[in-house]
Each structure stands twice: as C-alpha cells, then as structure tokens.
Write a structure and sequence with these properties.
Main location (chain B): membrane
Strand content of chain A: under 5%
Shape of chain B: globular
Helix content of chain B: over 70%
Organism (chain B): Pseudovibrio ascidiaceicola
Order of helices and strands of chain A: HHHHHHHHH
Pfam families (chain B): Cytochrom_C_asm (PF01578)
Strand content of chain B: under 5%
Keywords (chain B): Cell inner membrane, Cell membrane, Cytochrome c-type biogenesis, Membrane, Transmembrane, Transmembrane helix, Transport
Largest interface: A-B, 28 and 27 residues
Distance between the termini of chain A: 29 Å
Distance between the termini of chain B: 36 Å
Number of helices of chain A: 9
Oligomer: heterodimer
Protein name (chain B): Heme exporter protein C
C-alpha cells in the first residue's frame, strides 16, 4: 500500500510543480469561459441558457490540454520504463497516476466552476447541478483521456492527435453531463436519469481507461 | 489452407493474385446489374419522386462504413491476441476505405436530405454518430501515419480501435437519447421488412455489389501495404549495408533505420 501512496504523492507534487501546475488549467478554463460572451454577445438570458454547456466544454478543453503530460514527462526522463518494469500492476499504476492527475488538475476545475458560473448568469440551483455533474463526470474525462495519452505517448507532438482521438470518446460524457446539468431540479427524473448514466460512464472509464492505457504503454515501452 | 498459412505474405499475395481478377469482374457485374435495377426497374416513390434512388447508394455505403469498422476491430483482435502480421495489414487497409464510405454515406445523405428535409444537415442521432465515426476513422488514419514502426503502430491502433468499438455503441445510444429524427430501422425488423420487394431487391443487389467492392478494395489495399513494407525493409537493409559511405542514396531510408 505504501508504494501506492508514495506514487500518488510523487505524481501529485510533480503535477503541481511542473509547468505552472493546477492554476494553468483553471486559468485556461477562465479564458475559455471569458471568450464565449465575446462570441455570442453579452446577453445574460442567452448565456444562462447555454451556461452549463459552456462550463462543460471549458472543463473538457482544459482537461484535454493537460493530458499530453500525463505519461510523456515520465517517458522523457525514463521513469516510465522503471514503472513498467517495476513488477507492479501497470493498470494500477495508471489508475494512481490518473487519480493524482485528476486531483491536481481536475479538482481545481470543479472548485472553480461555482465562481465561473456567476459569469454566465446561472442561478443557485444550476450552479449546484453543474458543479455536481462535473465532480462526477470530470474523472471520466481524465480516464478516457488516459487512453489517448497512452496511445500517443511516443509522439513528440502528440497533443493535437490526442485531442482528436479523445474527443469522440468524450461525447457521451458531455451529452449526459450537460443534460443532467440543465435538468433544472435535482429531485426530478430529468436529472436523475442522465446523472446515473454519467456515473455509469465514470465507472466504465475506471475499468477501460487503465486497462487500455496500460496496454498502450507496454507497447510503446520498446 | 488455414488462416495461419495465410500469415506468410508470399502465399497471401499468391492467393490475392489468383482471386482478384474474378473479384473485379464480379464487382463490376454486380454494380452494373444493381445500378440498372436501381435506376430503371425500381419504381419512383410517390412522395420522394426520383430522389429516392439516392437510397441505393446511401444505404449500402452506410452499411459498409460500419462493416469496415467491424473488419478493423476483428483485425485488431487478431493483431493483439494472435499477433497475426496480416491482421495488422488488414486493419491498416480498412481504415481509409471505411473513412471513404462513411464520407460517401454522409455526402449522399446530405444530398438526399436537401430535397426531403429541406436542409443538408441536421443534428439528428444517426447523422451525428456517423460524423463522429468519420472523426474516429480520420483520427485512426492519422495515428497510423504518426508512428513509424509498423508493429508498434499496429498495436497502438488496435487498442484505440477496440476502445472505439465500445465507444461507437455508447455513442449510438447516447446520441439517440439526445436527439433523433431519422427514420427507424425498416429492413431488419421483427415483423418483416417494411419496404416493398420492388425496392428491396435492387437494394439487396446494391448491398451485395458494395460488399464485393469492399472485399476487392480491401485485398488490393492489403497487397499494396505488403509491398510498401517490403520496400521499407529493403531500404533499411540497403541503409545498413552501406552506412554513411554513399550518404546520397541512403538519406531517404536513414530516419527509418535510425529507430
């Protein structure tokens, strides 16, 4: 158990210290949300209607932005090879890396969501719903993103290709996330059905993500 | 001859060489008959008029777009589980063909949708999932091109293809849940097809012709890929035999040999 904890702490600290850390993702999130009103106009009624979608897409883009460093930095300095050869279950290693990555980059996005919600004129109820759906759904984004990160790990500039490969995988998450976030009331079926689907997708990602990413890392490990 | 004997590319190429002329003849014949039926025998629709004939290209193309992905997925299992070298080639060869048929289905659908629905594009469930399928195909093609080592590229692509299979199913259901306008399935249904035989027979003929077309294109593309790999191997050998001395002739092969 202790190796898991130390791996988690290592990953978390690296994610926080290298390249600006968690704040960079939040900053990008803020930038995305800020440019939307310039595109669609400063109409608060329109913005509050599409606000949940703006926040979800902003979170998706911020997540994609950070994904290419998930395994690549480790590959460059050789520690990925050591992790592959360590004899530990590579799937578990990937899962821990994803958890640390999410804690360092995904969680700040969720925490920033209530503040950014104010910019798009959401009411209290909607703020709760968006934050809740992002809290549940954002890990799924990181987990399916890990597949793309594993597959493109050996590429020098795999970031764009990673996004192209991951976006189709993220579409169901986005669909259910946004429709749960715009349901209006937390105790209605309109919220509960897509929300449960969203939970299912996260659980699904929890299995598929580490399995596929670990397989891809083994291949790229020469 | 089993699938394992086919692992020998030379034997496979010999088989392709023997089969291909017949396949081409059969494809051309089936296309000719199918198109004749589609254009001259099938009645025009009382509502849609002549435009209904677009269906005879649209439906088989859409069906092949999915079939290509199934082919790619099966090949991916082959290359991951049995490490069958031809499975790699088959998966690689399927991707551009699938992308082309997906594009054809989307394009013919748009052309058909303009007179029927009054718009080239709607964010309907099936259209959307085909658009996503096209993006997935193009992403996979890009991934094939991005990794130089063919064995590594094959494995990585197999992983993303298989994750994609699960994703295609989830996308299909989630998108349908999201928005649908497209007509429900009308050929394969529990209570028999809802299409009259005067249209169903030409449609079946066209579907057969498209499947033959796919097999032909797939085999040709696999043959080309095997040739391409042989050329690559020859270049690498040439580069390793004559190192640095005659740098002008080996410059092209050098990046491949360096890895």
């Amino acid at each position: 158990m202790s190796w898991m904890k130390s791996l988690f702490v290592r990953e978390y600290q690296l994610a926080n210290r290298v390249g600006g850390g968690a704040l960079i993702g939040v900053l990008f999130f803020l930038a995305v949300v800020t440019i939307f009103p310039f595109g669609v106009g400063p109409d608060m009624i329109l913005l509050s209607r599409i606000g949940a979608a703006i926040l979800w897409i902003g979170a998706l883009l911020s997540t994609l932005l950070g994904l290419d460093r998930l395994f690549q930095a480790d590959r460059e300095d050789g520690s990925l090879e050591l992790l592959v050869m360590s004899g530990r279950s590579l799937e578990l290693v990937v899962l821990i890396k994803c958890a640390a990555h999410w804690a360092a980059t995904g969680l700040p996005l969720v925490l920033a969501t209530p503040v950014l919600s104010l910019f798009v004129g959401l009411d209290f109820q909607s703020i709760v719903l968006v934050t809740l759906t992002l809290l549940v759904g954002a890990p799924a984004l990181t987990l399916v993103g890990a597949v793309g990160a594993g597959v493109t790990v050996s590429m020098r500039r795999g970031g764009v290709l990673l996004s192209i490969l991951v976006i189709p995988l993220a579409i169901p998450i986005l669909i259910f996330g946004v429709s749960a976030a715009t349901a209006g009331a937390i105790d209605s079926n309109n919220f509960l059905v897509p929300f449960l689907f969203l939970c299912a997708l996260t659980l699904f990602g929890l299995v598929i993500g580490p399995l596929a990413a670990a397989a891809a890392l083994r291949v790229s490990g020469d | 001859m089993t699938l394992y004997d086919l692992a020998n590319p030379t034997r496979f190429l010999k088989l392709v060489k023997a089969v291909l002329p017949w396949l081409i003849v059969a494809t051309v014949a089936a296309l000719a008959v199918g198109l004749y039926f589609a254009f001259f025998v099938a009645p025009e629709d009382y509502q849609q008029g002549q435009t209904v004939r677009i269906m005879f290209v649209h439906v088989p193309a859409a069906q092949l777009a999915l079939m290509c992905y199934a082919m790619m997925a099966l090949s991916s299992i082959g290359s991951l589980v049995w490490k069958h070298p031809l499975a790699d080639v088959s998966a690689k060869a399927s991707a551009p063909i699938g992308a082309a048929f997906t594009f054809l289905a989307l394009f013919s659908g748009a052309v058909w949708g303009k007179p029927m629905w009054g718009t080239f594009w709607v964010w309907d469930a099936r259209l959307t999932s085909f658009l996503v399928l096209l993006i997935m195909y193009l992403g996979i093609i890009a991934l094939w091109k991005a990794i130089e080592d063919p064995i590594k590229a094959a494995k990585v692509n197999a992983i993303i293809t298989l994750v994609g299979v699960i994703n295609v199913i989830i996308i299909k259901f989630s998108v349908e849940w999201w928005n649908t306008l497209h007509q429900p399935p009308s050929i394969i249904r529990a209570d028999g097809p809802a299409i009259h035989s005067s249209i169903l027979i030409p449609l079946g003929l066209m579907a057969l012709a498209f499947v033959l077309l796919f097999v032909t294109l797939h085999l040709m593309s696999m043959r080309n890929e095997i040739m391409r790999r042989r050329i690559r191997a020859m270049r690498m050998r040439a580069a390793s035999v004559a190192p640095a001395a005659s740098s002008s002739t080996v410059t092209k092969a050098a990046p491949a040999g360096a890895r």
